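Components:
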Amino acid sequence: MKTFIKLLIAMHMGFVSLACINGLSQVLTKDGQSINKYGASVLKLIDIEIYDTKLYEALKVYGTCTGTFRGYSFFSPNLSRMAKNFYFLSEGNLLIQPKMKYFETSFKYKAFKSGLFQDIFSTKDRDDYLKSLGAHLMSHHSSDCIDVYMTYDQYNDIAEAKEDDVMCTTENIHLFTLRKRK
Amino acid sequence: MRARILTIATLAFLLIICFFIDGDLLFGKSGIINGEINEGDLKVFQVSIYKISSFFGLEQNVTLKLLILAFAGCFFSIVMDKLLVLSSIGMWFIYWVICNSGIGYAYGADYFMIFFLYYNIILCVFRNKKSIHKYLLLMLQLHLCMVYFFAGLGKIVGTDWWDGNAMWAVINVYSFDFVKGYAEILLNYSSILVFLSVATILVEILYPFLIFYRPTRKFTLFSVIAMHIGIAGVMGLFTFGVVMTVMNLVAFGHYLNIKVPFKLPKDVDINLETAPA
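Structure:
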């Protein structure tokens, strides 16, 4: 029994290490990341070739079932200073987005909204989710046509903010128009 | 051991209630995320409410309610100390299915909860094997060490966490509006931002070493819990904070030597003595 549990621990730790290294390598190789000299050495160390193998795909099943497949490089190595959001307009009127009753579901909805503009989803996925949300709003606001807008606020870093202002740009972008099928 | 099993099961039960209240809006037929779109982000083996509903010909909100009822049944079975293994598997499976059903809503707290419920299965399976309880505890302790070490390593190689810009971005981009109101004041005391950023890196990367070293273990535990309270207060990640704090207390809480102010029933074994020093 002891041997079994020791093997289980070893296997679990082995997988979590791989998932963590994979997660770390993904955030470090993202475009435009500012990495210090230690970062370059760490990147060399973690540059291993296992991630395209069938073994890793099989291990990912374990990771997906145990919630450990993404690794733990939260908010690493740097943080974006751009706040993105979206809103819906129908005939020039701002549509009120769904309101959750419970604080945890409100937070989940907030996480969903902020996740849409991160690397978790492709642009196509993001638009599909926005269309789904738009369809939900159409049915609740008896609207036939909805314009979907994205807004982003770019913040200065500390040094720039001391010289200039906390926020430097705010922009609204029209993403697409949704129309009800007749 | 039983106290740990009950703690994990209770935490999961409290989290699942929110889906009962807002489930229709999140997963229902006319909910925010269409089930078919969500399926596109899932692997074949990932069971979801949409898949179950299609298979049994049920409405998605009916499936969700049935799953939550089954989850409650499993929870009460664990409270009553009956069918522990089966119930813990049921709790893990249902939580996993619900998270799969809205992959866009799932965030760190959910993934940690899935791991916690998986760990609960192992606790339930080996609850009567006292000789291996210390290994079970070690598994959670090592897992936490890995989590914090890699979280710290990711931050240490960038530039934002060294010059305070990470904390600055957290306040401006990710925090509550009332916190954002203090941004300009904090700009005059930017050394506070640098201190908080560097302290976060140090707590995370040194956690695996300091938590096992007797003179620093209590300080480390308090520091990491304080960090989660800070994250919850500034960024609103309350559930994440609670899940991580409970996970830390389940793994290392015995270091605090808290005296239980009441007599535990004889069959309740909180197993402080067998925990590794």
